[in-house]
Structure to design on (203 residues):
């Protein structure tokens, strides 16, 4: 089994976030820590992920929010061959994120290139960082499978996501399916659920 590299978003994932639970509960999981979580620069974040990937034969990615855009930036990077698959949870719109957090992020252009590794995108129907139409546009461009989990906010601690069992289920499905992940099916206005009634543990 390949290790799992966990990619938090802007400001990192605080204690209680499902990514922190994941890193503690799965012995093969490691958070890729960044020197600067608050004012991210894409090249700096890529350098840390490059380092982590260089130390393993291959790895799965589990990303949240801006971490999803970091993963997507590997679409045309040579080291992407080490990425066996990615679970991309609540990807953010770079435009919206820059508006909500001005003068803090240097992440280049929004990445809308087909990913060379299998991926499942987990989205919310009321995510303040990405609308459903924009979510579908990204999923289509990335060639991902889309699963929505209802009205789940940004799928973070603020929206009630501490320990998150459904995330493990989706990840295990990604690992089992390998490169046979099904193409996206558009789900506008509806909720598809492994986890429609997602675990919402207030932390």
């Amino acid at each position: 089994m390949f290790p799992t590299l966990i990619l938090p978003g802007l400001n990192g994932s605080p204690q209680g976030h499902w990514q922190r639970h994941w890193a503690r509960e799965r012995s093969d999981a490691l958070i890729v820590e960044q020197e600067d979580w608050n004012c991210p620069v894409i090249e700096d974040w890529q350098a840390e992920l490059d380092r982590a990937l260089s130390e393993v034969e291959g790895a799965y990615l589990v990303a949240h929010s801006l971490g999803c855009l970091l993963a997507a930036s590997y679409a045309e990077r040579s080291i992407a061959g080490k990425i066996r698959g990615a679970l991309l949870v609540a990807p953010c719109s770079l435009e919206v994120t820059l508006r909500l957090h001005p003068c803090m992020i240097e992440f280049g252009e929004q990445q809308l290139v087909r990913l060379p590794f299998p991926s499942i995108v987990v989205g919310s129907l009321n995510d303040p960082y990405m609308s459903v139409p924009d979510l579908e546009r990204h999923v289509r461009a990335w060639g991902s499978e889309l699963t929505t989990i209802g009205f789940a906010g940004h799928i973070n601690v603020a929206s009630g996501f501490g320990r998150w069992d459904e995330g493990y289920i989706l990840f295990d499905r990604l690992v089992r399916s390998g490169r046979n992940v099904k193409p996206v099916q558009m789900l506008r206005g509806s909720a598809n659920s492994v986890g429609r009634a997602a675990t919402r543990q207030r932390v």
